[in-house]
Design a protein that fits this description.
The complex is a heterodimer of chains A (about 110) and B (about 400). Chain A is an alpha+beta fold. Chain A is built from three helices and four strands. The chains are: A alpha+beta (about 110), B alpha/beta (about 400).
Amino acid sequence: MSWDISGYEKWTWDEIPLGAMTLEGGTGVEHKTGDWRVKRPVWDKEKCKNCLFCWVYCPDNCCEAKDETMVGIDYEHCKGCGVCAQVCPFDAIHMMGEKDARAEEEGEH
Amino acid sequence: MAENNIKVMAASGDQMVAEAFRQANPDVLPVYPITPQTIIVEEFDRFVAEGRIHTEFVPVESEHSAMAAAIGASAAGARTITATASQGLAYMWEELYVAAGMRLPIVMANANRALSAPINIHGDHSDIMGCRDSGWIMLFAENAQEAYDDTLISFRVAEHPDVMLPVATTLDGFITSHALDRAELMDDEVVAKFVGEYKPERSLLDTDDPVSYGMFANLGNFYMENKLAQRKAMDASMKVLQEVGDEWEQISGRPFEMVKTFGMEDAERVIVVIGSSIGNARHVARILRERGEKVGVVGLRVFRPFPAEQLVNALKGAKAVAILDRTESFGGEGGPLWAETVAALTKAGVDVPCRNYIYGLGGADVTVELLEGIYEDLKELPAQAAKHEIPAVAYRGNRS
């Protein structure tokens, strides 16, 4: 359904949806939770055999696959739990400090 | 009174609740058995086994799961019931707040029972009064008939668009849950018409129109607004309760009074009490009034929302009031009924001396002598109040 949330910051008790409902699905995509991360998983495409263990085990659907092939990690939502790195049988994912990773990224740009 | 095929039953309160549940035709009943509520689910299970009703009966592994399943079923749009008591209700604790916060119109019967330790299976209000702040509407039946009537009324109130709150319809363990009583069972079709069909506005299972319930509301993010909405709904439920109760009176001939009075036309010494002991107090007051004593009883049938206005009106002419709590609030000035009553009187500016008694814990006998003793105490109360020497909360019925 279409849900008009314009001006929601000013909603009063009788304007909010009953029972703290959200009247649409899939809103988690809009909620960027990746900045909670302390360590990030770094995926090595060369070592990856596309077993997709990480895809199965990730508790937050952040190991992204397409056509049965691993394509990358969703850093906007990954919280850095490290399960993917733990379950990978091929050492294709290693955890890296978020601070170092960001410094490295900035160096590249 | 409407045309009605009334069946007069010799039944326990639990049986009458089971009959009311059957007649309300719920969709889902997740439940775990616990004394003294067990008869309710045993009876209901029998109705299901006999094919008299097609409710989804879910025998879960604990009360925590029972309420969790009830929350899920209700959010999915099902008319949902459950029943519990004592430790079971305590085990549901966190879920009770979830049900209320998500505004789910679950109807739950509670056979009021003591809490451990020491272990005790008998009636008092320790369990139900403990969850008085959880956001559930709370009804207290005096007898099997009220347990039946309250249960039917509960569905209409819970599912009313101005309310949308869970309701705990309660009866005192063993005294009301198990003792055989005379009660009238109304015709199935008449009840079905009264209770009506639950038409939820939304369903968690509607994939074409998806919703999430009870969404994250952190720092300043609508948590206060959601709680205020619950308070407003609880306030609104007062009017709805009376309207639905009055409608039920038209059908049953039995009035729904949130505050029941006896002898209050001239009573000076008054006992305020809730639950099955209202009957005991009325019995004793009748004996004393026959001897010319000006005593009375004010009994509550509803505790949440608290019927402050009716209670204050009933007590306006009183000279001394005893408030009886069948539960403890250790370290407090008194029990929950005491606290609410005194607050209501103070707010209304009614200056009448009150004192608090704790009685009947763990099913301790509520005798004629006990209640006579309290009426006797009240003779001294106005003089004690004048000297600012109202006695502290006192136990009655214990070995002293």
